[in-house]
Structure formats: structure tokens, C-alpha cells
Amino acid sequence: MKFIDQIGHVVEIRQTPNRIISIVPSQTELLFDLGLEEKVVGITKFCIHPSSWFKSKVRVGGTKTLNFEIIKQLNPDLIIANKEENTKSEIEALQKLYPVWTSNICTLPECYEMIEEIGKITDSYYKANQIIAAIQKEFCRLKTAKNNNKKVLYLIWKDPYMTIGKSTFINEIMNEGGFVNAIESTENYPVITKEEIKKTQPELIFLSTEPYPFKKTHIDEFKGICPNAQIILVDGEVFSWYGSRIIKSPQYLIDLYTKIN
């Protein structure tokens, strides 16, 4: 069978994969929720969900620092990657050796497409569609509950400060929640200075718990920059993980409204 992935690469798979490696944390969790416990043989050191897999599955390095020797030993018949999470050079090197299906996700429809396609490839199509339907139901519920339109500066990194542009999946989830990105840039993750943060005049500043592990101790730092903004520590996974975990995002955003109000 031939599949075209989300970067336009043709992936030829002769039979239902039985030795899968996932090199993307959110897609690893999706494979678990699809019931593929026995078929996933390798994950990355950042694939922390589910915890049972994090403890027991073979780790093939980091998302951008793969160990090709371990991958060779595992002899995968499918590798699931992502354009943003993994490096282009490593994806291209893997494509020469193995079937590699690569996602590229900036929107919810692209998220649904990824789940559906992985369901087809892994012979778990029925379960994949159940997951999609459940996610869509939650986001429909969110639409009736959202009541914001407040301007938000979402920060993902420190030293230097980095935020998120209009073309990211995080921006998509913010929009679904009724929040307005304070950044107009189409660059995915622009660097921003203290002076530029002040100029954006955000009503809210979201400090994400990943990839930089912002903590409550950082709130005072940003109060000094934008004293009029409400500063909130937010769970980065519910904004940026585009696998099955995204089902938790609508309720999280509803609860966030209460915290803001």
C-alpha cells in the first residue's frame, strides 16, 4: 500500500506494521490510545506519556538527536515523525532506510487527518475515528463556552524570550479558546525582547510549562515587564500536543476562563 504523508512524501508499506518507532511525543501517546502496545518497539526520551511506555519501551534518542544504531537494531517497519519536531536531515536519512510517515500540523483539521491516516496505516481505523469524534465533540462544547477575545502573549522560552506566531498549532488552540495572539508575526517562534513585550501591551501573558519549564517563580519577572497584564502559568501540553491528548484541551480552556475571570 502507498500513503502520502503530510509533507507530500510517498510512503510504501507492504503490510500492517508490527515494529513501529515513534519519534514524536504526542503521536506516541496516540499510538497507545489506538491500542498498539505490542507493535510499538521504540520511542524518544521525550515520550513521557504514557508513563508505562516511558519506563519500558526502548528509547532511540531525542527528537532531534536520534540514535541510528539503536533504530537499526529495532528493525522498524514504520517510523512516525513530524516536520517540526524532528530535523529535516534526520527524516531524510531515515526515509532512505525505512518507511517514514511524517506529519505537519498547524490546524485542527490537520490533526484529525494525522489521526485518521495513522489509523489506516496501523489497522486501527475504527478506534482512530472514535478518537476524532470525541475530540470534535469537546471542541464543539468549547465553542458554546468561550467568552474571551483577550490579547495574549504566549511564551515558550527564556534567554532569549521566544513566543509563538500566527502559523503555529498553539495559535490555533488559542483561537479555538477565544484568545487573540498578541504577536502578528508569521514566523513560527520569533525571539522577542523585553521592550517588544512591553509594546505588545498584552492583557494576559501565558507562561508555558514546555518546552522551557516556566514555573510560578517566573511570574514576578514578567510582572516587572508588564505590570498591567495578568500572568498565568499554563500547561504547554494542552496547547501544543496534537495527538489524542488534545481531547483534554477544551475543558482546560474552560477552566482557564474561570481562573482569568
Describe the structure.
Helix 5 runs antiparallel to helix 6 and helix 6 runs parallel beside helix 11. This protein is α/β, with parallel strands linked by helices. The protein has 11 helices and 12 strands. The protein folds into 2 domains: 138 residues, Rossmann fold (3-Layer(aba) Sandwich); 115 residues, Rossmann fold.
In short:
40% of the residues lie in helices and 17% in strands.
Task: List the helices and strands in order.
Answer: EEEHEHEHEHEHHEEHEHEHEHH
Low-confidence blocks of residues: none
Number of domains: 2
Mean pLDDT: 96
CATH class value of the largest domain: Alpha Beta
Q: Would you tell me the structural class of the helices and strands?
A: alpha/beta
Figure out the total of helices: 11
Strand order of the largest sheet: 5-4-3-6-7
Percent of residues in helices comes to 25-40%
Q: How does the overall form come out from the CA principal axes?
A: globular
* Rg value: 19 Å
**CATH topology heading of the largest domain:** Rossmann fold
Strand content: 15-25%
The named CATH superfamily of the largest domain: Nitrogenase molybdenum iron protein domain
